[in-house]
Design goal:
The chain is an all-alpha fold and 70 residues long. Helices cover 77% and strands 0% of the residues. The chain is built from three helices and no strands. It starts with 5 loop residues before the first helix and ends with a helix. The model has no long low-confidence stretch (mean pLDDT 95).
Length: 70
């Protein structure tokens, strides 16, 4: 799994980022369950998804702060 670049995420709208946040959260939950059942082959994907989630949340908060401040 390839990590998303912050540059690409900044080009998206808030609604697209929120949808991506929901999808990524669901995917991460599914992969965590698979990992706990020893069914997950690529365990590095967990780390990539967690970092993607952090990037998405950071960019969302940046956009909301920018909108709030004008």
């Amino acid at each position: 799994m390839k990590p998303r670049k912050a540059k690409d995420l900044r080009e998206l709208t808030e609604s697209e980022l929120l949808q991506m946040l929901r999808d990524t959260t669901e995917t991460l939950a599914r992969l965590r369950i698979q990992h706990s059942l020893s069914q997950l082959q690529d365990t590095a994907s967990l780390k990539v998804l967690k970092k993607d989630l952090a990037r998405i949340k950071t960019i969302l908060s940046e956009k909301q702060r920018a909108r709030k401040n004008g």
